[in-house]
């Protein structure tokens, strides 16, 4: 069959965890969804020529660059996918948008509100020229989360009163876990707060359609010194039992309560010290007519309580794998289930469809800036004896 769809060349910067899962999405999206354009995995950029070439061969990228600026200049790149630590998001995304490239940028949008504001301004200017951008809050594209949004929009929960959101991990409970970039403020901007707290902030705002307007917060760093990661640079090591160590400069956990602009109250917990919890993004929404509850560790299920059931009202399990459920029908027959990587396929599918239609994808950089303002308010509150802080 001759290829009649226009091809869009993709250039990706970074090839660690996010680079790997984005690569799988670019590789597979065209085999599942009938798209108006064909993504071509044109070039991968990374600092090490040798390691980037090896990653490109493994992940399916046709060429490599060791400088992301060269990637942006290439004529075979129409889309730039930013999969680097947060300290480089603003520089890369703004340069790409200015060069007329569509951009999808991993979360959180940036490491500071100022960076996020500059990115959003660049995105607005680019959109006026038909250049599109998205921030990659992938959990919006879990079928159960998208169904939760649909139920709220249909009024099935009535007036939203409470949001209870947690994101629980435990990968750094071991004090010997090294000082990786996610534990350094200069690279990551913040710790659990920006890395996983950003997800529950966006997910809560997405499902409810309401925005947080104020918070009161606590943060904690339980382990303040860790062994240096292999090949670490720019760190002044300490010494613990003779090994070189470095200071953890971010939060290990963040807890906050918040008020939404639609009147709902929220409680949020993001921690990397919930021993035994691996990737438990959990959210419960209580409304005047019903409630819903979701746990990513059982990501194909949504629990729904309809108050109209009266005395029999209880949470019933919806297995979100039916053709009429968001995204599910593109994959397997009912009951077969999807995984973490499928949310990224949905993300790039929606991105490509928006680019082809000349519309702005969501979540936008503006949505990312909204999350960034909440992150900053949480940090400000936590630094001021949990004082109530406007977003
Ligand atoms: C943190 O370990 C992390 O990789 C986040 O950075 C991702 O955004 C999340 O999807 C999984 O956990």
Averaged pLDDT: 96
Q: Examine the coordinates and then state which fold CATH places here, giving the name of the CATH topology of the largest domain.
A: Dihydrodipicolinate Reductase, domain 2
Whole-number total of structural domains = 2
Strand order of the main beta sheet, please? 17-16-15-14-7-13-12-8-18
CATH architecture of the largest domain: 2-Layer Sandwich
Sketch the topology as an H/E string, one letter per element: EHEHEHEHEHEHEHHEEEEEEEEEEHHE
Largest β sheet strand count, sense and barrel closure? 9 strands, mixed
Q: What Rg do the Cα atoms give?
A: 21 Å
What is the CATH domain class of the largest domain?
Alpha Beta
**Small molecules held by this entry:** alpha-L-sorbopyranose
Low-confidence stretches: none
Kindly, what is the distance between the CA atoms of the first and last residues, rounded to a whole number of angstroms?
53 Å
Number of helices: 10
Category by helix and strand content: alpha/beta
Helix content: 25-40%
**Strand share of the residues?**
25-35%
